[in-house]
Amino acid sequence: MACYAFEGLIPVVEPSAYVHPTAVLIGDVIIEAGVYVGPHASLRGDYGRLILQKGCNLQDGCIMHGYCDVDTLIEQDGHIGHGAILHGCVVKRNALVGMNSVVMDGAVIGEDSIVAAMSFVNAGFQGLPKQVLMGQPAKVIREVTEKELSWKGLNTLEYQVLAKRSAQNMQVVTPLIAAESNRPRLKGVTEVLPQAKLM
Hints:
Helices cover 14% and strands 33% of the residues. It has two helices and 19 strands. The protein has helices at residues 146-169, 189-192, and strands at 2-4, 12-13, 18-19, 24-31, 36-37, 42-52, 57-58, 63-65, 71-74, 79-80, 85-87, 90-91, 96-97, 102-103, 108-109, 114-115, 120-121, 131-135, 138-143.
């Protein structure tokens, strides 16, 4: 990974976390156990502190940043989809922020909530648990269902297992010039770990 100290502050990465080599960590960044950080994610802790708690994921191309004396926080089991931007906000435990969404300064996404893809959460929004937010600006449209919570939990578990799989199996190689005739397919967590249970 590209990891940079800034004014004496060095990013912290717990050894069981997986941070893709193309991700960038700058300054006041704290990554806890079992976290997955995807390719080209940018965590720029040159003003506020950026915290990724245990078991959360920050996927490909995501951006985290914030202002001085403010923590930008993803709580335990938070799930941040591809290309999302988090700026000076809090994503509570087990919440999901969908692909290409933006969560602005001072906003709080409630525990077990879901922000739909391509949504814009205004600065200062104060969410409650189990809300579905959608739109630009994002509005609460209903409560999260148990089926959605189960689906979210399984997808977050996929990334927790992917952190381990990536640490064990990711390697730089030269591409093949043609696909093998018997090329295998990769499996998801329910196939790799059939006994997997939601955390």
